[in-house]
Design goal:
By secondary structure, the protein is an alpha+beta fold. The protein folds into 2 domains: 257 residues, Aminohydrolase, N-terminal nucleophile (Ntn) domain (Glutamine Phosphoribosylpyrophosphate, subunit 1, domain 1, 4-Layer Sandwich); 219 residues, Rossmann fold (3-Layer(aba) Sandwich), CATH 3.40.50.2020. Helix content is 35%, strand content 20%. Helix 14 links the parallel strand 19 and strand 20. The termini are far apart.
Length: 514
């Protein structure tokens, strides 16, 4: 079989992105309510293939669930770096063959963004690029740095000029100021000055570099496409382009991928601390068809529901999810409890966006049309409603009232994770502590607030056991689970130790009285 020309592949990729984009836009516009937890970001990179930019665009589309505000691609053609950065979806900006053709080269990295640090403006869209003394560098970053404010202040005092409000720009400045000669050594020098969470894909003249924080909070994997190394946030990005999974990047590892296909690994940080990947990747963020730590995310989420059925069984006529995020857990709950699995709520895929409507009552009517109660299935029935999390509680309250209005006799809610008590500082846009309903109310108060007959959350030990980790080891937990426990795995320099201690003490008292 002859290989199609680069132009043919680019045009084919552009057409495919347009088709995929139309499907994704329909799903996005028909989302039942604004998601209560916002995604982080997705990164992707490939080197050693003439179709690098087109493959990166496809990979980013597979990671679109991780951020829908902006997307960008940087490429290197052996002589010059080229960048395209835009607000909006991947398919809206990279489905034109002419755009992909401008990103010439056999190496490219990309980023799809949800803003957790820095406002949504073009200057903050990644990859960020800079010309350094002997090299150019493009950086795509997933995560948040917890000493970003401190470092930024120090660098400004030394004369650094920042072009964005994103904490990701710190990697450029710290790398530029390093006295090491090789780019990879400069980068490692920069990494040793930052705190927090990061998964990086970096493009230089020498090759493509990947790096993961020492705790392993944010995910990064290595893949291969016919000898071309790939870096990505999730395995679902490999599936879309027909690449194979090689392995996870280790916490604290820096990996250098050459155009020849050679891959070099350097352990920049000692592996003394057990890896603690973000538990919300498994609960919420990763796509169900991704594989994490060798296990299917879909099957793990079903396990959460099954465990929930053991811990919080209730007499009812059916188990039903809040689509789509609650579906795997609801299937697991139904199978373990013996209840029929039913769709109490039906999503419409043909309702336009409602946030631009001028009046709140019109917006709410539009939202209700997106999640319609299945009256024929629920009228007079006792429903166990399954969701993956409760953050503010506003979405849950609306849905419960909708079901009651449609004739449900009882509505019991079961949540496939523990109460979220603490905010996140590592790349998840959780609300402030004041907006976290579980940080303000006991479980019974939440039950009354959202209007259900009973409410139960999965226990923390049950969560760990569902994921095959046994009971949580307080001395060495297997996950970054601070949103439930207040056990932050890194220093929170920008927050300040006094403020951090006060927050944890206050919420610990609330947890004891719940």
């Amino acid at each position: 079989m002859t290989r199609p020309s680069e132009t043919d592949f680019t045009r084919s990729a552009a057409r495919r992105l347009r088709r995929l984009g139309r499907r994704y836009r329909r799903r996005l516009e028909s989302a039942p309510f604004p998601r209560e937890l916002n995604e982080e970001c997705g990164v992707f990179g490939v080197i050693g293939t003439p179709d690098a930019a087109a493959l990166t665009a496809l990979g980013l589309h597979a990671l679109q669930h991780r951020g829908q505000e902006a997307a960008g691609i940087a490429s290197f053609d052996g002589a010059a770096f080229r960048t395209e950065r835009h607000l909006g979806l991947v398919s809206e900006n990279f489905s034109d063959a002419a755009v992909l053709a401008r990103l010439a080269g056999n190496a490219a990295i990309g980023h799809t963004r949800y803003s957790t640090q820095g406002e949504t403006v073009l200057k903050n869209v990644q990859p960020l690029y800079a010309d350094l003394d002997r090299d150019g560098i493009a950086v795509a970053h997933n995560g948040n740095l917890t000493n970003a404010r401190k470092l930024r202040t120090e660098l400004k005092q030394r004369g650094c000029i920042f072009q964005s409000t994103s904490d990701s720009e710190l990697f450029l400045h710290l790398t530029a100021r390093s006295h090491h000669l090789l780019m990879v050594d400069k980068l490692i020098d920069a990494l040793k000055q930052v705190e927090g969470a990061y998964a990086l894909t970096i493009l230089t003249k020498e090759g493509m570099i990947g790096a993961r924080d020492p705790v392993g909070i944010r995910p990064l994997i290595l893949g291969d496409l016919n000898g071309a190394p790939i870096l990505a946030s999730e395995t679902c990005a490999l599936d879309l382009i027909g690449a194979k999974f090689v392995r996870d990047i280790r916490p604290g590892e820096v990996i250098i991928c050459r155009p020849t296909g050679e891959v070099e690994s350097r352990q920049a940080f000692p592996q003394a601390t057990p890896a603690r990947p973000c538990i919300f990747e498994l609960i919420y963020f990763a796509r169900p068809n991704s594989i994490v730590d060798g296990k299917s995310v879909y099957q793990l989420r079903k396990s959460l529901g099954a465990r929930l059925a053991v811990e919080a069984r209730v007499d009812a006529d059916m188990a039903a999810p809040i689509p789509d995020s609650g579906v795997p857990a609801a299937i697991g709950y139904a199978q373990a409890s013996g209840l029929p699995y039913e769709m109490a709520l039906i999503r419409s895929h043909f309702v336009g966006r409602t946030f631009i409507e001028p009046e709140q009552r019109i917006r709410e009517a539009g939202v209700a049309r997106k999640h319609s109660p299945n009256r024929g299935a629920i009228e007079g029935k006792r429903i166990v409603l399954i969701d993956d999390s409760i953050v503010r509680g506003t979405t849950s309250r609306k849905i419960v009232q909708m079901l009651r209005n449609a004739g449900a006799r009882e509505v019991h809610m079961r949540v496939a994770c523990p109460p979220i008590l603490y905010p996140d500082f590592y790349g998840i846009d959780t609300p402030s502590r004041a907006e976290l309903i579980a940080a303000q109310m006991s479980v019974d108060e939440i039950r009354a607030e959202i209007g259900v007959d009973s409410l139960a959350f999965l226990s923390l030990d049950g969560l760990y056991e569902a994921f095959g980790k046994g009971r949580r080891d307080k001395a060495a937990p297997a996950f970054t689970d601070h949103c439930f426990t207040g056990d932050y795995p890194t220093r929170l320099t920008d927050l300040g130790e006094t403020q951090r201690s006060a927050m944890i003490e206050q919420l610990s008292l609330l947890a004891e009285t719940s």
